[in-house]
Amino acid sequence: MSPTPDRPENSDAARDGRGRFAESVAEGRLPAVLAATVAFWLVMLFAADLAPAVALLGLVSTATAVVCVLPTGGKTAKSHSTDRSPVRRWPDTGMKLLLDGMDEPAFLTDADGTLRYQNAAAAAEFGPARVGDPLAFRLRVPEILDAVQRAGQGENLLPVRFIERGAGERHFVVRCSPLRLPRPEPRRRPDFVLLRFRDESDAVRLDRMRSDFIANASHELRTPLASLTGFIETLLGPARRDEANRERFLSIMLEQARRMGRLIDDLMSLSRLEMKAHLRPTGTVDLAEVLPAVADMLAPVAAARKAGIVVAGSPADAPIAGDRDELTQVFANLVENAIKYGHESGNVTLTLAEELGDDGRPGFRASVSDDGPGIAAEHLPRLTERFYRVDAARSREQRGTGLGLAIVKHIINRHQGRLVIRSEVGVGTTVNVWLPRRPALSGSEMTKEAEAIATEGLAR
Question: Can you give the pLDDT at residue 157?
């Protein structure tokens, strides 16, 4: 939006003076006083026997004074006129620069809600608006327009909240502040009204996620806890002497207790990852060593389902900046999911290849593929959500907590990597993990790295 040129202050005063002069003429005050002045000097001319020149000079002087003084009405009248019909002022260059320096969208209107300026953030967020148009042409939110009207009357208002619905729900908090330029005369109505918009969508979304997380975690813990309570009460009551069922009940109780333990472990792991999400790992890890180690570690799990794990050809070395334990956890989780949710007697393939990232950085792509039933497309965007399951019953049967992929996502984000899941029903699923290559280190950097690794080890 092109800025409106600054309006000089004396032009406002000139328009103000012309308005008051026209008002005094329209109300009949000026003609009445002039007529009284002429009558007075005519009486003085004939009754007081003044000289015509003196009478004419007095008439001219008095009329001039009346014309100059009467329309202004004095300070009281001026203040009254300003309150009733405020001068249409325009922001100067300093005000515009201040608004443009704000990160949040801002609009500046006069007391009647006519737009006087919008900053670049407001133009980018809500689209360009034309100066001189009512604000209602751009923002058709009744709560905001009502707040502007009340602020234009000089009221100090509480923030207004509104939700912009569209492709994505946006939550805004709007503050309407009346602004008065420094003037000697008192006045009630402001010169401008400033609207500032603060986007709280991320905070609202985070709060919802926290609430959902607490609700889901409580539900996941309540189910095994209720099962344990029920079996304990049974063993203490009707089945106190039931030797035949006691062992079966105790086995179920043990499994439910282990389920609670796995869930608590995953919750603690997720909490630790969130606490250090902003800290980048400093160690050096070779992915070409991690993938075969994970395959060997999970070989017994694969054998139990008569599945095979194949590590395809990979680079001789694949150095990245990372935490070996966390990366082992990532690929162990992905391989275990492929074994559990793939076909029995199926195959899981691990591959590693060099690949440039989306931003052109060199890195490595590690893939975990299975030949299982696949996942429908509508589930793919939500797989990394906490406690989200495609098949809840099967997940519990496989001793899943619903937090595995959420943990994987947090670890990969901490390593500045990228996670992509591709699947086709009836064909299988492939999970791709891209991680950036670690640049070569100088001698001083290697010393600092060793110190950081030592410090991290002591912290653990």
Answer: 81
